[in-house]
Amino acid sequence: MTVESSVEQKCCPCGSGEIYHACCQPFHQGSPAPTPEALMRSRYSAFVLRLADYLLETWHSSTRPQSLDPQQSPEWTSLRILDASTRGDTGTVRFRAVYRLGDGWGYLEETSGFTKEEGRWFYVSGDTTEGQLKPGRNEPCPCGSGKKYKACCL
Asked: Measured by CB atoms within 10 angstroms of the end CB, which terminus of the chain is less buried, N or C?
């Protein structure tokens, strides 16, 4: 089995519980995301999978950077959508993404703005906050495994 096909058969990095090939992969291959939340999830997965071209393609031209190096991105471990709404051709998604920080954990919370043009959603910008996580031994592991922290990544 190739590396690509093994990724296709794994749970999607976006945390939906779906298999990657049935979740974010169609968006990564060019299908338009139907909602701002679906686009946000696919963009998170693209950060995890280091898909710079997809990230740039789904970033609105008015705010898109010239280049992007996802290799400089932290090791993202889990995504939780906190709120999502759509009104006409605009949308908002509030999420928390957790990442490894050396031997600890960090998080990024963002309220992201999206706009729809010619049938496609685009990420416009986000208001972010970051912080450090300090999970207790008996709390769920920040890696998203579903196990207690003491039995997983401690």
From this structure: N
- Locate 25 and state its tokens: 């992969």
CB atoms within 10 A of CB 26: 15
Give the pLDDT of the chain (154 residues) as one tens digit per residue: 344 555 567 899 999 999 999 999 999 999 999 999 999 999 999 999 999 999 999 999 999 999 999 888 899 999 999 999 999 999 999 999 999 988 889 999 999 999 999 999 999 999 999 999 888 889 888 887 788 888 888 7
3-state helix/strand/coil string of the chain: CCHHHHHHCCECCCCCCCEHHHCCHHHHCCCCCCCHHHHHHHHHHHHHHCCHHHHHHCECCCCCCCCCCHHHCCEEEEEEEEEEEEECCEEEEEEEEEEEECCEEEEEEEEEEEEEECCEEEEEEEEEEEEEECCCCCCECCCCCCCEHHHCCC
Backbone dihedral angles phi then psi of residue 27, each to the nearest 5 degrees: -70, -40
